[in-house]
Write the structure tokens for this entry.
Amino acid sequence: MPTDVKVPALGESITEATLGQWLKAPGEAVAADEPIASLETDKVSVEVNAPVAGTLAEQLVKEGDTVAVGAIIARVTEGASAAAAPAKEVADAATNPAGPAETPLPRENEHAPAEEHADLTLSPAVRRAVLEHHVDPSKIHGTGKDGRITKDDVLAAAQAKEGGGAPVHEPEARPPVTPVAPAQAGAPASRDPGLRRDDVSERKEERVRMSRLRQTIAQRLKDAQNTAALLTTFNDVDMSAVIDARAKYKDLFEKKHGIRLGFMGFFVKAVALAARDIPAVNASIDGDEIVYHQYLDVSVAVSAPKGLVVPVIRNADAMSFAEIEKAIAAYGKKAKDGTLTIDEMTGGTFTISNGGVFGSLLSTPIINPPQSAVLGMHRIEERPVAVDGQVVVRPMMYLALSYDHRLVDGREAVTFLVRVKEAIEDPTRLLIDL
């Protein structure tokens, strides 16, 4: 008798998710506890594992469907059974009109992957993309869990194959070209005369359903704008002292702690120091009360394949530089692998976002409710500045503090940012608590 595969518990207050991707097709053998599907929740991706070893008999939902916690999404037949073949054919007919998911990729197309690569674990959506864009999956570096190939990986490979031109789009019917009558004298041109009819026919579009994570990000950011009285104050900071400290101690630091000394550790420590003087930036509003946190849980914005995520470094105010850097490195790897847990994403009393790693010069970050403030870091660039009456060139960074004006006054926000600036420009303050 087939064993039901159910949506697992996803964390407090999370009652549903989206079926993001099938990792196994009907008819494929699965091991006990082997991932067979991935779910997208409001915060992270969660894998669903096979409850027993056997064969995936059938898929009961499609990619993109919303499923509730406890819902049955598939069935597994224990043991290597061929009984799943009919169910496999039915599922493939629904998800892959071109044919069964396990059909070997065609050899007759000179650009198509060869049959010897057909044993790669490809979801129906990924397999369709491979066939449509004529790429070899064995040559694609997968960014999914355990190196699995995602649809985005296929599209990126197809774009690279075409020489890095326009973004890859799903195939679509080419619209007929309607002959354009010559414009009459004095009549305005109906379109740019520089565009040929062939150019116009290549104007493609693609509609992709927003992931649950992207929908949640969009909703939370809009809620923050609608609820909080957002204001941003700016300052710049001379990074010379921090750069010199890293250059002097980076080798010893890495040798002792097994991790590189980065900039984020300095900023987390500086925020912890400044928050002691200005506790409002580390507080939150709960109804008609203000909650002042006697600890600092820093949400560090990290770029993940499916969007920006903010894992939390808890009790950051009590951590050493090495502990902070190790926590950030671990979260960065988990974000890339898609293995962050709900608990690691929950909470946080203050956020640091480093847009500088992408080249951002200046921005106005949006707070992460119910937090009251977010610090935005930006790229370091050499600029002329006046020091002791002399114009010198220094490595400078713009800092931005966005805050909820309902809770944080302008004087407090400016003072907090000045405290951060002072600590970065003179890191000794971090050691003697000034």
In short: The radius of gyration is 27 Å. Residues 3-161 form a domain with the OB fold (Dihydrolipoamide Acetyltransferase, E2P) fold (CATH 2.40.50.100). The chain has eleven helices and 19 strands.
